Amino acid sequence: MAGNIKVIVCPDAQSVARSAAGIFAALIRAKPSAVLGLATGSTPEQTYAELARLHREEKLSFAKVSSFNLDEYWGLDGDHDQSYRYFMNTNLFKHVDIRPWNTQVLNGRAANPFLECQAYETKILSVGGVDLWLLGIGGNGHIAFNEPGSSVDSRTRLVSLAPSTIAANSDGRFFKDPAEVPRCALSAGIGTIREARQLLLLATGAKKASAVAAAVEGPFSPDCPASLLQDHPGCTFIVDKEAAAGLKAPRN
Ligand code: PGA
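A: This is the predicted complex of the input protein with 2-phosphoglycolic acid.
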């Protein structure tokens, strides 16, 4: 099964971001009402900055776009500065003309997480599915908060974070102390993500090299959730040289 994922290797993180933003911009220009799947974390920050620049300087309009974010910490309000709703507002939404009511981020304080997740899946279906979903990858191979062991057909649900994810997210970039990191999150499932027409996973830095190699060249296995994208017909990874360092097969 390994081998279906297309890998583009860029010289550095800035060119990963430019190339990813270019793919999003081309989609939005071809289909102004595109349905975007979005991600949070350090990796997509530069991509969002480039999309904001394209809006400001090159008239890229998000006025008809709708968006779905991968996940949200369980227990955090959207105005908490570590919530993913807050991240999206500050890194992208407030810099472009996307309509707030067209942006879907799971509610980490929903009264009923099951109903919240069901409503999110229903909303994706009601707009005709996601055209292009941006993804990051954890050092443990997770996509969204689908930690190792998640099933290929998992749906949006309340999940527990792996200890390695709690450690990665409390290294000072986001939370300063592991005790501050919520233990659970609402996360789009792997089955949910796989239904997007195109998938674009970004990875930068040496810390991602082994996860990228396992996802692209390892077995199709829940041990590395990103490997469960290998049989998707439209999955591309854009990685920098450091994140590509573990790949055996030569790439571009
Ligand atoms: P990062 O997170 O972009 O902050 O490295 C990616 C992920 O854990 O999915």
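Residues 13-30 form the longest helix (18 residues). The chain is about 30% helix and 15% strand.
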